[in-house]
Write a structure and sequence with these properties.
Layout lengths: L1 H7 L18 H15 L12 E6 L2 E5 L3 H10 L1 H12 L4 E5 L13 H4 L22 H12 L8 E4 L6 H15 L5 E5 H13 L3 H9 L3 E5 L8 H16 L3 E6 L11 H7 L3 E4 L5 H14 L6 H10 L4 H17 L6 H9 L11 H12 L3 H5 L5 H17 L4 H7 L5 H17 L1 H16 L1
Parallel strand pairs: 2-3, 4-7, 4-8, 5-6, 6-7
Antiparallel strand pairs: 1-2
Bound molecules: adenosine-5'-diphosphate and magnesium ion.
Length: about 450
């Protein structure tokens, strides 16, 4: 009985196959690991029918698990959310939420519905992806402000809103936060949030099954359409064509369109010009990698959301060790927390070092002040003695501020320690310098490139 249902109705949705969010071929092993962990760590909660559950996939940060009947659904929802979330986080190393899906109303229905017809009218969002849980720093200020504005006045401020940045920097989080905000003020708003992969898969399915009408009805009669990772539209001609018309219909009706991608519109190869130009009609906002201060605030916030107590030195250690992206930071918190559990629960620097120390790929090389000085001397054509001395001429003061900024970003030295290396300046001077350069960097593309190059060189040494 169950097997039949499973084949007909509980087929994983189309985006399970290739979506970036999906676990792909890892899924089987991953799911087995999650179940295994629950069996060993929560034996009392465990039931033999857990093996019948189907992992549907990871959608917008929520791991969805299909139940076979109402009793299972009720039991899991009432008792097992925490255990499954914990296990899923440990196994995936990501802060995912877990949701148990109720069985379909009519599991024996003869005609198989289209995938998008099986999904609820309005989208599911990760409850943690809110503005309150998002740390704003120089790296994401504009994108955050734009999402807030769109969240408060959809369809009228920036349309479309296009957010881009590399992986793990908070695009999905911000897009969902905008949706949460829209929903707060207008619970009836029809919001469709989906990955680009889902859009194209639904489109292909609709074409194959002669159901374009239903597809268009679904996508063109919404108040807000959010498509995450639009770069996956590249080189898919028919999907692009369809999306072009979807876009035009929604835009003309003043419905809000929000898009994200890993690069700015004109740099996505394989996207038609007419789409690129439309992507630029509204506001294009970039998210950069978070600086140290922002990373510290993110670690603090993530720990708080998960009720994990992290001492300040551990927060600093994690934020300064891992500087690639925010998802890695979360993975690090999970690792540290998991190891601490094995050692009695207390988290301290020792545990953090043990947890992250073995992973040499994420540990950047120690960079020293002399190396920074050396790099800046070469790049800015100033004398070493001037940098460390008291001279205040503009070019020297600027190069010195760059040094302080780099020291703050790339070393673990405190403000005081950095100040001492530069003619005994006090910590407020260092703080001011690093803020100033960070701020300039967001406005001055050439400086940004120079600093990125210097950072890269220093890391390679
Ligand atoms: P992207 O979509 O850009 O790949 P995500 O939105 O999935 O990135 O972000 C990865 C993880 O990092 C998410 O769990 C998200 O909550 C978190 N994150 C990213 N930036 C921030 C931030 N500024 N404040 C809080 N959490 C963040
Ligand atoms: Mg994303």
């Amino acid at each position: 009985m169950f097997v039949v249902r499973r084949r007909n109705v509980l087929r994983p949705p189309a985006d399970w196959r290739g979506g970036r969010e999906a676990f792909g071929s890892m899924s089987e092993a991953l799911w087995e690991n999650i179940l295994g962990r629950i069996r060993t760590q929560h034996a009392a909660l465990s039931r033999s029918w857990f093996s019948q559950l189907v992992l549907v996939g990871l959608s917008n940060g929520v791991l969805e698990i299909q139940t076979a009947n109402a009793a299972q659904h009720q039991y899991l929802t009432n008792h097992c959310v925490a255990a499954f979330s914990e296990a899923a986080q440990e196994i995936t190393g990501r802060l995912v939420a877990v949701r148990f899906l109720a069985p379909p109303q009519d599991a024996t229905a003869a005609a198989e519905p289209l995938s998008f017809e099986r999904e609820p009218e309005t989208c599911r969002l990760n409850p943690d992806y809110t503005f309150e849980n998002f740390v704003v720093g120089p790296c994401n200020q504009l994108a955050n402000a734009a999402c807030v504005a769109v969240g408060e006045n959809p369809g009228t401020t920036y349309n479309p809103l296009f957010v881009h940045g590399s992986v793990g920097l908070g695009k999905t989080h911000l897009l969902q936060a905008a949706c949460h905000r829209i929903r707060q003020t207008n619970p009836a708003a029809k919001i469709l949030f989906l990955s680009c992969e889902t859009f194209t898969n639904h489109f292909i399915e609709a074409v194959e099954r002669g159901a374009l009408h239903q597809f268009r009805y679904r996508y063109r009669y919404v108040d807000v359409l959010v498509i995450d990772d639009i770069q996956f539209l590249a080189a898919r001609e028919r999907s692009q064509e369809e999306f072009f018309h979807t876009f035009n219909t929604l835009f003309q009706a003043q419905k809000q369109i929000i898009l994200s991608a890993d690069s700015p519109p004109k740099e996505i190869a394989g996207i038609e010009d007419r789409l690129v130009s439309r992507f630029n009609w509204g506001l294009v906002a970039r998210i950069d990698r978070p600086c140290l201060d922002t990373r510290i605030a993110i670690v603090q916030k993530k720990a708080k959301v998960r009720c994990i107590e992290l001492p300040d030195d551990v927060v600093y250690f994690i934020a300064s060790t891992i500087d690639s992206n925010t998802r890695e930071l979360e993975g690090a918190i999970t690792k540290v927390n998991a190891l601490a559990q094995q050692y009695g629960g207390r988290i301290d620097l020792e545990i953090a070092r043990m947890a992250l120390g073995d992973d040499t790929t994420i540990r950047p090389k120690e960079i020293s002040i002399p190396q920074i000085l050396d790099a800046v001397v070469n790049e800015f054509n100033v004398r070493l003695s001037d940098l460390q001395g008291k001279k205040r001429s503009r070019s020297i003061a600027f190069a010195r501020q760059v040094c302080m900024y780099l020291a703050r970003e790339l070393t673990r030295l405190s403000l005081e320690e950095i100040g001492k290396c530069f003619g005994g300046r006090d910590h407020t001077t260092v703080l001011h310098a690093s803020r100033l350069i960070r701020d300039l960097r967001t406005r001055d593309a050439e400086l940004d490139r120079t600093l990125a190059k210097l950072t890269e060189e220093l890391r390679r040494r």
